[in-house]
Amino acid sequence: MAKRYSIKIILSGVANESAVNLTVSDNGIGFAAGVWLDISSLLANKHFGVAGMFERAALIGAELSIKSQLGMGCQVNIRWKI
Q1: N or C, which end of the chain has less CB nearby within 10 Å?
Q2: Torsion sign over Cα 53, 54, 56, 62
Q3: Which residues contact 76 (CB under 8 A, 6 or more apart)?
Q4: pLDDT at res. 43
């Protein structure tokens, strides 16, 4: 029987006349962030979804950051200065 657990996802954001800041957090399995979080490494390791997030943020001039640890979930933040 597969292990069952509850995943909690939190979406939050703030928008004003100068910036938009959005955050998505979860309590999932996480991953070792920071080791390969550049476009070349992401594509080489077939992490196309994460690479796509960085590419889309770059297209609009936004900053994307990802914080994660194995077993500790993940937090994705995007900040777009208008």
Answers
A1: N
A2: positive
A3: 23, 24, 25, 53, 64, 65, 66
A4: 85
Taking the C-alpha atoms of residue 81 and residue 40, their distance in angstroms, rounded to an integer, is 26
Cα(35)–Cα(70) distance, integer angstroms: 12
What are the pLDDT digits (tens) for 10-66? 999 999 999 999 999 999 988 776 656 777 888 887 888 888 999 999 999 999 999
Residue 36 has what pLDDT?
Answer: 61
Confidence (pTM): 0.80
Q: For residue 34, what pLDDT is reported? A: 65
How many alpha carbons fall within 13 Å on the CB side of residue 69? 1
